[in-house]
Amino acid sequence: MSAAQQLPDRARVVIVGGGVIGASIAYHLAHEGITDVVLVERDRLTSGTTWHAAGLMTCFGSTSETLTNIRLHSRDLFARLEAETGLSTGFRPVGVIEAVGDTDRLEEYRRTATFQRRLGLEVDEIGPREMADLFPHADMDGLIAGFHVPGDGRVNPVDLTMSLARGARNLGVRIVEGVSVGDVLTRTDGALPRVTGVRTSAGDIECEVVVNCAGMWARQLGERHGVVIPNQAAEHYYLITDTIPGLDPNGPVFEDPARYGYYREEGGGMMVGLFEPEAAAWSLDGIPDDFSFGTLPPDWERMAPALETAMSRVPVTLDAGVRTFFCGPESFTPDRLPAVGEAPGLQGYFVAAGLNSVGILSSGGLGRVVAQWIASGRPDVDVTGIDVARFMPHQLHRDYRRDRVTEVLGKTYAAHTPGVELLTGRGTFVSPVHDEMVAGGARLKDVSGWESADWYAGDGRTAQVTPSWGRQEWFSQWEAEHRAVREAVGLIDMSFMATFRVTGADAGAVLERVSAGHVDGEVDRITYTQWLGPDGGIEADLTVTKRGDDFLVVASDTAHGHTLAWLRRQVGDADVVIEDVTEATGQLNVQGPRSRELLAALTDADLSNDAFPFRTARTITIAGVELLCVRITYVGELGYELYLPREHAARVWRALREEGTAYGLRPVGLRALGSLRLEKAYRDYGHDIDNTDTVQMAGLGFAVDLDTEFVGREAVLAEREKPRHDKLVQVLLTDPEPLMFGAEVLLRNGVAVGDVRSASYGWTLGGAVGLASATSDGPVTKAWLDEGTWEVDVAGTRVPATVSLRPMYDPTSARVRS
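^ FAD-dependent oxidoreductase, sequence as received from the core. Prediction below:
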């Protein structure tokens, strides 16, 4: 039967790409009861990247609950799939050892191990002698510890894909090879286009959902419809030696990131895989359509030093002959996290690509997540970190992809010590007060493509950072900025915040229906609110300011794409215009108990508490510039946000700094913003709260107005009647010395009940502070918290802690309203 004869005229779902990810989604869709599915592969199954993958099945290494559970699901599926399909996956739980040669990596791995044990991963810290017993071929010189995961191991990527494909076929999914997809067909549906089908080399298929699983071709397919998937192929290497006597085919996988290598038995020889520190992009102008089961010519000159370093860890490989030396393409995203979910600008277009060399070990769990998302319309895991909507158009640019992929691949095996940053692709967006921040000694960091101040060394000084898990010299600068906001006044640039102007005859009605708070009420008022899904899950956490018939919507930088897409999906045929004004707008924050005095010295407007109460928004003039002044705070003090055209922001900044000397003003960076907001227990979407949380669970019920009709209202009412058994709580270490960075485990009476989602150091509270999830057998109440003895596991050490449902700093918000 020809490919055209195999192709139906219509299917509910069309999957583009027959690698392990596409096969897994097809398999899991069938198990969700969706069998009207066609998987279309341009050549043969596995012909892209899957066929040459090394086949590691490693769960260790992530402090993301979503990614850890994706890997755990994969491992479990690989072990049981043969019983269902009759085809082996080649999974062998031979164990994996992660080697450690320095104290920074040891600290990182201890924190990771603590977090992943809570999720059910068996992982043990072992010493060099135990490592040598398990993997006697390695030279243990310089190694101080290892982390052994006995349930991990290896899998055969081709066998796994074929087993998944058979499982899908057995349940009714149609898989067609030798058919390429040239285009996705769409029609306009309200404010956003919608998928209607695909155009293939064998004819059109009408469908409701398309899933782009095209691997290293995903970017090219997505660009045809404005879907941003900035994955880029790069060279990836491994070799297999000739037979080495005495190699145990059931021996563990051994990884030594400091030597850039991973090692395992293969066909009687040793596989030596490489993640070299100086990587190379491949085919920047696009992957050839006919590239199948392809290899690349190796760059011996570039690779030789890294390869020698890797092989020196397992000296027996240096004396064995080389049976195979392989170079093939692997694709990577700018942040080395996958691109998953419904495209922000095209309804019905899903993406599952950009797996960053962990596609095999992620395939089972990722397939389940995407299939469940398509079937129910809502993901059942936190997807804020992997949502394809987080990517931005500038990340598609050729030079950006070239530079970034070489860096992220080169850092695959680097330690994740606090203070380590990516350096390529910087400065895409420049704050309107960039020069002023630099003059103030700002330590600049990348914030969604913007250069922003993390902290300030002082006027005319150069900020220096040495990555570390411990205290650093610049902590004194951080503390001074924190205390300036608590005791005097701080000036913070927040121009990177996602800012949208919403207008039109129906703007108020649409925003009222989308927002859980009452936003279409009094003019010149700002409302803090959430946007919810029909199930009550939080989709956005933001502010809406009503200015007559205009509304200003402000969300966090990381939620930019998702927030914009969510609003556009709600518009339908309403008379609403949404304008992204982020790049045209400067946002300067003046925060602290003396902020009113400072602004009063610069404007004729009446800023008294009676005339300008909390949540007021009015146009005022500072330094000859008309701007929107909003009385709101994200640090827990009296404060104001100033919105103004970017071309005037520097003038206002300079005026604030000059006048602010008399009021104790300091420029303040994002490091202090984080510590200040966590002392006040203010939430940050994508960090403390996500799409699986509800307003009640997150402690945000105060922001909901049940007198209005909004998306998710019924779910909110249902949860009030039957509360969930988890809650977001504030956590403070009672010992002032340990530091928290997030992902530490929270214990009640010695039993793990949650983990710290984000953390900082609370200079006012006198210890590390954070927001954590806490789960109970019943509703999480103040009494349940008070009856427990609380600790936080910090890298294996249990530290006493205090927990609270209310903010520990200024719980009544008296300072905010003063």
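The chain has 20 helices and 39 strands.
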